[in-house]
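Q: Could you write out the predicted structure for this multi-component system? I'm mainly interested in how the pieces pack against one another.
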Amino acid sequence: MAHVAFTANLQRHVACPPMEAAGSTLRKVLDAVFAANPRVRGYVLDDQGELRKHMVIFIDGRQVADRRGLSDVVEPDADVYVMQALSGG
Amino acid sequence: MSDRILVSTRKGLFVVARGDNEWSIESTSFLGDNVSLSMHDPRDGALYAALDHGHFGVKMHRSDDGGATWSEIGTPAFPEKPDDDESDKNPWKMMSVWALEPGGPGQPGQIWMGTIPGGLFVTHDRGDSWELVRSLWDRDERKTWFGGGSDEPGIHSIAVDRRNEQRVVLGISCGGVWVTEDGGETWACRADGMRAEYLPPDMQGEPNLQDPHCIVQCRDQPERWWCQHHNGIFVSNDDCASWQEIEEANPSVFGFAVSVHPENADTAWFVPAIKDERRIPVDGKVVVGRTRDGGKTFDVLRSGLPQEHAYDITFRHALDVDAAGTRLAFGSTTGSLWVTEDQGDSWQTVSEHLPPVYAVRFVG
């Protein structure tokens, strides 16, 4: 199970405590997160299911590479951080 | 007359109310958050606020207790964009809420929403769920709309006709004026007579490429319309079938906002600026332009407004007139807010220190 944590700035708008989620890719991990907490999806992904322009996700210290397909591999026990990108100001 | 104003700003929603003698901020909501637009629904008293969180996207909120508490409601979303449509360069992503308008008295719970990048949405359940109006979005002309004031095209003006709530008029930057007579089943472009200097000479009259900044309908003379256009001021006296240009107005024909007197369509107000390249008030003086003869002449109203080194610009939703046609309010990009109780002859400063003001709307 991956360990998923969210920026505190997001928690100001929607409750999203750290959680464990299963999946071999980022898309699968996030789908598990959104199944448990549906409101979070619209804050992280846009209308087309892509990572929002000014959001960034780190997987074991690596910045997500596939922002559209979210196909990045997630190892069991990985740490996944959902953050704001500084590009958003 | 209205005693209360919703002021949507870059850093929160402010309710401004009239006391015994003067106007002041009564309450705040969403402090620190970007409120692009708000709406009061006269049918049930509900308030709606459109938030643009930047990083986290657009979110809608509703209050049923006058703004004391708010709940997040449904967020409109575009459907998946087809991979095979190379002709559509515009994104299918919600970027900003740019218009909110209640449906007619016989349409409880129905609200129209205009967005950047140009999608029209409608709800029938007070915003719990929204649907994209595909009859407009799927038209080939929509794919030729382009950004004006924003990188992408947007629907900023929505007027639901009081004579027939199935008739809805839209103002689009840059996509002209679009009208439905059947509640959104079918649409037609109605911008004949508008002129776009920013296009090549043989394209300047193209209705679907016009940049109306704001369009308003006179409540009691509903066949008469005013438009503050990128190129100047236009009027329609035949229900948008044709538009005529007002070629001269003091001190400038450029601006973003327009309000029309609810009873007398000959009276309208503008907040003029130097056009295009500079976008500052003429001579650094904030003034309001008022016509009382259908645009033949304009009064320049300045009593109570800053007349030295003032660089306030008023965007398209930041001027409003109350239902009696007596009180007006306008806000600016530099955080000023002014109110008049005598049709603009004199103005009272409510604040000079608000966040950038996006929208000003009287309640009731």
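A: Regarding packing and overall arrangement: The beta strands of chain A are 2-6, 19-21, 55-59, 62-63, 79-84.
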